[in-house]
């Protein structure tokens, strides 16, 4: 009897360790995890998953959630990391848009630093700002500091001097024409927003091998990615940044580092509808970056398995083990959005992602 009971416990434990992409994912209270467009921080033996708290629509009515876990499968709801404000004059007043929150830890200041995409209430997606909040604890409360458009008055490092000059008639160019593509590459939108700062929407944070932090965001009407260096406290921009894939229409950036290369996976821009993922790599965060193509393989690859990436999670204690985190959005009922977590494997120097109905972390221990 004892042996049977032990076997059942082992079986239940094995089953519970499975990650099932696209399925309901209950927390320890039995509620579907509400952490959309999120990212994960590992700190002192614990993972912390931050994400958008969704209701029926896409507006921020509550704020940013945080969950904790030691095994990446079982998650405890730690509550609201960053609350929306009841002050109608606050940038993060209830009813604004707060998306893709990411948190990094600053060892010098011992602060947890959150940046997120912010749209001001009642303005749709016109504001295109990034917001900052800081906390002494990984579970919060995070205190909102400011919002801004990055790098006002600063030109990209990979920008030529002659591109800084205004060009007659450039605002009348027809989109998606050869002349327009050239104009975007040569700074059409950079020049337009140089005084007030560059647009910043879908974003992620990344800390490199030397502890230098970068804010990566979709800019220029979501046409071009910017990779911007943060200061030593991770709370402001240094003014050093580059553009990546001008007019390539990339958003949802997610990054990891392996064997001397930085890799980035992004998506196209098709609203709530899925599209084919893209991938890039570089030897340095500030480029140059080269395109590698769609990292997804097999049936459903052309739609990133009906999802959109949000973060790449390094698995602690396992060498070169990374999880591609993505959201399967449900615009008719946002709270029901599902999570697509899949292991990344490398083939010929390129990241590859295959669909799995269910899997566990032991996949990283197997010979690939």
UniProtKB/TrEMBL annotation:
<protein>
    <submittedName>
        <fullName>Glycoside hydrolase family 43</fullName>
    </submittedName>
</protein>
<keyword id="KW-0378">Hydrolase</keyword>
<feature type="signal peptide">
    <location>
        <begin position="1"/>
        <end position="17"/>
    </location>
</feature>
<dbReference type="Pfam" id="PF04616">
    <property type="entry name" value="Glyco_hydro_43"/>
</dbReference>
<dbReference type="GO" id="GO:0004553">
    <property type="term" value="F:hydrolase activity, hydrolyzing O-glycosyl compounds"/>
</dbReference>
<comment type="similarity">
    <text>Belongs to the glycosyl hydrolase 43 family.</text>
</comment>
<dbReference type="InterPro" id="IPR006710">
    <property type="entry name" value="Glyco_hydro_43"/>
</dbReference>
<dbReference type="InterPro" id="IPR023296">
    <property type="entry name" value="Glyco_hydro_beta-prop_sf"/>
</dbReference>
<keyword id="KW-0326">Glycosidase</keyword>
<keyword id="KW-0732">Signal</keyword>
<dbReference type="GO" id="GO:0005975">
    <property type="term" value="P:carbohydrate metabolic process"/>
</dbReference>
């Amino acid at each position: 009897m004892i042996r049977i009971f032990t076997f059942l416990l082992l079986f239940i434990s094995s089953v519970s360790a499975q990650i099932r992409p696209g399925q309901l994912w209950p927390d320890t209270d039995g509620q579907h995890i509400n952490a959309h467009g999120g990212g994960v921080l590992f700190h002192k033996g614990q993972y912390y998953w931050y994400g958008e708290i969704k209701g029926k629509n896409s507006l921020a009515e509550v704020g940013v959630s945080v969950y904790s876990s030691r095994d990446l499968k079982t998650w405890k709801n730690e509550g609201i990391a960053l609350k929306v404000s009841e002050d109608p004059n606050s940038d993060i007043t209830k009813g604004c848009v707060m998306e893709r929150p990411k948190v990094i830890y600053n060892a010098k200041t011992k602060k947890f630093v959150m940046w997120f995409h912010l749209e001001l209430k009642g303005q749709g997606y016109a504001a295109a700002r990034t917001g900052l909040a800081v906390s002494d604890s990984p579970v919060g409360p995070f205190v909102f500091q400011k919002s801004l458009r990055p790098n006002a008055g600063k030109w990209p490092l990979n920008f030529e001097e002659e591109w800084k000059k205004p060009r007659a008639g450039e605002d009348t160019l027809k989109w998606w024409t050869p002349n327009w593509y050239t104009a975007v590459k040569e700074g059409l939108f950079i020049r337009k927003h140089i005084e007030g700062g560059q647009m910043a929407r879908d974003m992620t944070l990344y800390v490199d091998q030397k502890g230098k932090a970068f804010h990566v965001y979709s800019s220029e009407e979501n046409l071009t990615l910017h990779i911007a260096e943060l200061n030593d406290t991770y709370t402001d921009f240094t003014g050093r940044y580059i553009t990546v894939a001008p007019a390539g229409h990339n958003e949802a950036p997610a990054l990891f580092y392996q064997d001397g290369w930085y890799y980035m996976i992004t998506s196209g821009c098709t609203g709530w509808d899925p599209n084919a993922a893209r991938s890039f790599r570089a030897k340095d965060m500030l480029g140059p970056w080269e395109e590698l193509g769609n990292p997804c393989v097999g049936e459903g690859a052309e739609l990133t398995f009906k999802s959109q990436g949000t973060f790449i999670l390094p698995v602690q204690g396992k060498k070169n083990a990374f999880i591609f985190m993505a959201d399967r959005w449900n615009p008719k009922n946002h709270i029901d959005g599902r999570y697509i977590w899949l292991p990344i494997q490398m083939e010929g120097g390129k990241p590859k992602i295959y669909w799995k109905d269910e899997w566990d972390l032991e996949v990283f221990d197997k010979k690939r």
